[in-house]
Amino acid sequence: MQKHTEAGTRPGRRRVGRTAAALSLLASVACSSAQHSPASVTDGNSTEVSVATWNMCGVRQWSCEDTGSPKEKFQQIRDLVGDSDVRVLLLQEVCSEELTSAALRLGPEWHSVFEPYAEVDAAGTSTRVECTGQGQGQAGYGLLAAAPLTDVEAVPTDQPTVGLHRGILCARVPALGLRVCNAHIALRESDEAHLDWDFRDDQLRSLFEAAAADSRTVLGGDFNSPPPVGNRASSAWIWPAEAYTTYRECDQKGSSRTGRPTHTDGTKIDYLFTTLPRKACKVVDAKTSDHRAVVMRVSRPADSGGVSTSG
Fold first, then answer.
1. Under CATH, what is the fold of the domain 47-303?
2. Contact by Cβ (8 Å): 156, 206
3. Mean predicted confidence (pLDDT) in 73-102
4. Is the Cα dihedral 81, 83, 86, 87 positive or negative?
5. How far apart are CA 169 and CA 284, in angstroms?
6. End-to-end Cα, the chain, rounded Å
7. What percent of the chain has pLDDT over 70?
8. Beta bridge partners of residue 178, listed in sequence order
């Protein structure tokens, strides 16, 4: 995948006048269901539900050639569903056809939505990124859930003037009483025309503002940034104040803002946040990606069919 980098100080000059660059590509949403042998159906009487985020490293041309086949990556998804009882997955660096196929193979209760990445050149021309390999489709990020997804929204946010556009995708899962937002945040030097511009603070702010629309939201994804540990942390300034106060991160303990590494380079760059009561958190090794999966179990809201608990 495209390796994240960190600089030691906050950039001295901030960007201005990027209204056109802030427009997000609103892609057609692919929803899928099937008639194959299903994974277990979500228990409507359960008081808890598990959500996972995982960067699949599925775009092979982004240094992912040696991270496993599409079949092996699907098996990792199946393991998250079977071993960790995951009912919603936030996926990054996934190919559109593989996402659709995963929903089909998991069973008729599974549904998916997808948003493509876009490469923007110096003339402002936007081109969707194609996955290498026959029949893999476009590269992007998406949601996979064991229930229908509704109110799907690609959240507009500031993007590089020249370079790769990632983004934020939100949807409701009414059967689980949840709203979920999947974010793939820009790398620090992602604007090829302005290497000193940093979009992470604006994109994270847009993400948490989108989450504030519903207290039942679980938000997360690949943030391409370490946690804001200590006042001298090089990236602490990009984080909205509410990230670790109003919200709690899956791996957050007390006032600590650290967490177990999620990338093979030993850093934590993958996150799950919510205001719902957290019941468990684990980081799952994924041999078919350079990212580990993060799994958070939360209490379902009382109006979703389960009984919410405090804590």
1. Deoxyribonuclease I; Chain A (3.60.10)
2. yes
3. 97
4. positive
5. 23
6. 37
7. 82
8. 173
